[in-house]
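dude i think i finally got it to work??
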Amino acid sequence: MRRLQEKKHITASCRISRRVVYKNNKLLYTGTQDNLSDFLEGIYQVLNMHYPKYYKMDRLSRLGLVAAEVLMKGSFRQEKYQSDEIAVVLANANSSLDTDIRYQETIKTIPSPSLFVYTLPNIVIGEICIRHGIKGENAFFVFKQFDATFMEHYVSNLLDNHLARACICGWVELLREEYKAVLMLVEKEQSSRTLLFTKKNIIKTWEFDHG
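look at this
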């Protein structure tokens, strides 16, 4: 007999692109900085993070870290879960290419060990997990474009099979000055502001844009 699957909900969302940050579809921050690094630091300051390791990270990890901070801050009762009950599932289109290019440039003089350690895309997951003490299932996928069907199936499988009770999932993409982060917090709980975790609502969250 097929086991009844519990409904899952998007309990929070975050979108960072084109110098703006949205939390749960509400404008949180608008940047006026000329370059991406300064824009990300502006978000970092607004969030009042006080996390010195931030300045040692590559830009992809910085984007992922501040997006996760926006997503979780004030939205996630992490104390409800054990550290190994929270999963992180991310994807993008260009892997760690932004950092790979920057590392390649250093080879012309002195190779940079600090950049070399970030030449894998899953490092951004590691940084998020270290920051928030997360020890659950994690995976990073590389697709040509965001795949809502895959994300729904993969995350639902984790929660339905009790491999996780909550999941941070979405897209963290950065190459040169082009970037986009869309993260969702998925849980089984429900409130007046949550959306069912379905392909339709994943796409709705992905496509949301007020400008």
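The CA atoms of residues 6 and 58 lie 38 Å apart.
im so relieved honestly
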